[in-house]
Amino acid sequence: MGSIDQNVSRTTEEVEELACLYSMKLHPAAIELDLFEIIAAAGPGAQLSPAEVASKLPTTNPEAHVMLDRIFRQLASYSILTCSVVEGEDGKAKRLYGLAPVGKFLTKNEDEVSMAPLVLMNLDKVHMESWSLFVLTGRSSRKATTASGLGAAASRGGGGEIIPKVLNPAFDKAHGMTSFEYHNSDPRFNKLFSDAMNTPTLFIMKKLLGNYKGFEGLNTLVDVGGSSGRSLKMIVSEHPSIRGINFDLPHVIEAAPPIKGVEHVGGDMFESVPSGDAIFMKFQGGKERTEGEYEALAKEAGFTGFKKACWALGNCIMEFHK
Question: Can you give the residue ranges of the O-methyltransferase dimerisation domain (predicted)?
Answer without folding.
Answer: 29-108
